[in-house]
Design a protein that fits this description.
The protein is α+β, with helices and mostly antiparallel strands. It has 9 helices and 5 strands, in the order H-H-H-H-H-H-H-E-E-H-E-H-E-E. The chain has 2 domains: 87 residues; 118 residues, Cytidine Deaminase, domain 2, CATH 3.40.140.
Amino acid sequence: MAKETDKPHYSGHRARLKDRFLKRGSDSFADYELLELTLMQSIPRKDVKPLAKELIAKFGSYAEVISASTDRLLEVNGIGSSAIISLKLIEASAQRLSQSIIMNKPVLGNWEALIKHCQTNMSYKKTEQFRVIYLDRQNRIIADEVHGEGTVDHIPVYPREVIKRALELQSTAIILVHNHPSGDPTPSKDDIDMTKQIFEAGEKLGVIVHDHLIVSKSGHSSFKTMGLL
């Protein structure tokens, strides 16, 4: 039987970190400490504090670490498949939770939750993603679908396909959403032109465009609020 003195130097630190989390929650944790606690579950026999700090230094924050691609995470020495599964499971759980809060509910009375859902799913992506949220006559969300992925500053969007899908779902209104990896949520001329095309295509067939949201790490913009819809 191993003696008390045979325990690794970090075992007491781990126990204290877990106890603090249970008693005080995540608000008392720095980003690297929260990441350290996450990595403990998948790397049980190593002091993971240096690794947690290295990940934060490389990616910038806890959110950016769990949102990083598998390829980029594997660039960090000490990160293997088990650690990646732990990190991506947290990302998937956050996305599933944010979606469960808004699905099948009137979106206009749940607007902040909708924005948080979009930011959770899209803000930290390195390329542009275009999604459409389809609503029924009571403005309840019936589908939340990604229509395409593009480059760091461009994504092809096909207005006819967006409206065709709305008709298939018997959706009477939609909300357009895409992200700006640059961090600036200001609409570009292409964004404005594309939104106008979808609006006009929908208007002819009884599908209303409620809004077009652009999300980024620094915030979001709303076409409706800006008077562009």
